[in-house]
Design brief:
single chain; 144 residues; mainly alpha; 6 helices; elongated
Length: 144
């Protein structure tokens, strides 16, 4: 009989974050796939809905997406008829949702909220707020 395997990494915060993130992103991907959206696409349209006229570069900074990756992402959303671009100044464009984009963003946000409720239901209630605060302090305190 083989001895049980030991996981020497299980108490490392980074390892735990990665494992939890992988699982939850897969779950969210499955939920948003029903809307024919990837998690990043869903995040972008939800952000545009909350910030009409937002610039593509601002979304990229908010979501930590390289500008080279933002351009094809916005082009995909545009080709699906979900967003409108309007020139703001010399080089930047403000983004707004179309009627279809608004409908889809509302559905995507509802799926994200459902996913969040399901995920947080597995965290003891007394630990929920401290967990979110601790995670935010990790990604907000990154050295520049």
């Amino acid at each position: 009989m083989q001895a049980p395997l030991r996981d020497p990494l299980k108490n490392f915060v980074g390892y735990a974050l990665r494992r939890a993130s992988s699982l939850e992103m897969a779950n969210l991907s499955n939920q948003l796939a029903q809307l024919d959206l990837r998690p990043t696409e869903g995040s972008v349209i939800v952000i545009v809905q909350a910030n009409p006229g937002i610039r593509q570069s601002d979304i990229g900074r908010m979501l930590d997406i390289a500008s080279a990756n933002m351009t094809p992402l916005i082009a995909r959303l545009d080709s699906r008829g979900l967003i409108l671009r309007k020139r703001k100044d010399g080089r930047s464009q403000g983004l707004r949702l179309t009627e279809e984009g608004t409908r889809l963003a509302t559905q995507a946000l509802a799926e994200m909220e459902k996913h969040e409720r399901e995920m947080m239901a597995r965290v003891p209630e007394a630990m929920r707020e401290p967990l979110v605060s601790a995670l935010q302090s990790i990604w907000r305190e990154q050295p520049e």
